[in-house]
């Protein structure tokens, strides 16, 4: 079945892109979990910014903890601190992180691979685009395999193209006229003592099948992520036609 456009009618009239983006990582996890060796684990992560975080008051206790009551009863003085005035005040709005991702760890919780699913929030402002690209670059610098899957058709920015510009090696297939939708895997490694960035990139076209991406676990071993299979499973579950 072909790739749908989840960000425009007629799909958007009946199904939210948030619902699909929230479910898709789970089916990626199911697929990868069947392929990974026993010493690896895989988890989905969804973070939608501070607007969706639990209220702090929900974690407050109705009564003070026992150690605090005991300290008061014996007359122990609790330390107080009055900080000085700030040296500078800036009226800025810090960029919220919108993340739909799948993370692969070794059993010691060492991250070895990340699949980043782009959301509109990652592409809507220069600050958000820079934060996403910087995150991917930092992962690659730490020899972590990074895959980026971008289905967002309503914003033309290509974050993979921005990542390659940052690396100083623009991809000739992803220039200013690059497609808005794509899937790519990148991994950093050293060959003969020299750093190398290896890339598997695929433009995505609405109406065409999705590709399979390699997910590198070590220098010499990888598993496959069949985007088409887990995409269709997500669409069937949500009854997206």
For the record, the count of structural domains works out to: 1
Strand runs, count = 8
Strand order of the largest sheet: 1-2-3-4-5-6
Structural class: alpha+beta
* Number of separate helices: 7
Low-pLDDT parts are 50-61
The H-and-E topology, N to C, reads as HHEHEEHHEHEEEEH
First and last CA, distance: 10 Å
Give the radius of gyration.
22 Å
Estimate the mean pLDDT confidence: 84
In terms of DSSP E residues, the strand content is 25-35%
Largest sheet: 6 strands, mixed
- Per the principal axes of the C-alpha atoms, what is the gross shape? globular
Report what the structure shows.
- By secondary structure, this protein is of the alpha+beta class.
- The chain has one domain.
- The chain has a six-stranded mixed sheet, sandwiched between helices. A two-stranded antiparallel sheet has the order 7-8.
- Helix 2 crosses helix 7 and helix 5 packs across helix 6.
- The relative contact order is 0.17.
- About 5% of the residues have low confidence.
Please give a quick description of this structure.
The protein has helices at 11-14, 17-35, 66-73, 120-123, 126-141, 159-167, 227-238, and strands spanning 40-48, 98-106, 111-118, 145-150, 182-191, 194-203, 212-216, 222-226.
């Amino acid at each position: 079945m072909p790739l749908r456009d989840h960000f425009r009618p007629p799909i958007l009239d009946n199904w939210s892109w948030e619902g699909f983006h929230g479910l898709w990582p789970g089916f990626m996890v199911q697929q990868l979990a069947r392929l990974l060796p026993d010493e690896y684990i895989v988890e989905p992560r969804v973070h939608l910014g501070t607007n969706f975080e639990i209220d702090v008051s929900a974690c407050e206790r109705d009564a003070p903890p026992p150690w605090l009551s005991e300290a008061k009863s014996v007359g122990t003085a609790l330390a107080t601190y009055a900080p000085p005035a700030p040296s500078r005040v800036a009226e800025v709005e810090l960029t919220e992180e919108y993340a739909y991702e799948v993370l692969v760890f070794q059993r010691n919780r060492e991250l070895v691979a990340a699949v980043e699913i782009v959301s509109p929030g990652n592409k809507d402002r220069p600050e958000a685009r820079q934060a996403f690209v910087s995150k991917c670059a930092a992962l690659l610098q730490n020899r972590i395999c990074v895959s980026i899957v971008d289905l967002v058709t309503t914003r033309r920015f290509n974050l993979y193209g921005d990542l390659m510009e940052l690396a100083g090696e623009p991809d000739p297939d992803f220039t200013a006229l690059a497609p808005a939708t794509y899937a790519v895997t990148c991994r950093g490694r050293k060959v003969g003592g020299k750093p190398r960035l290896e890339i598997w990139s695929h433009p995505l076209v609405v109406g065409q099948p999705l590709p399979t991406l390699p997910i590198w676990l070590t220098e010499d071993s990888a598993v496959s992520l069949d985007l088409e299979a887990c995409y269709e499973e997500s669409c069937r579950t949500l009854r997206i036609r």
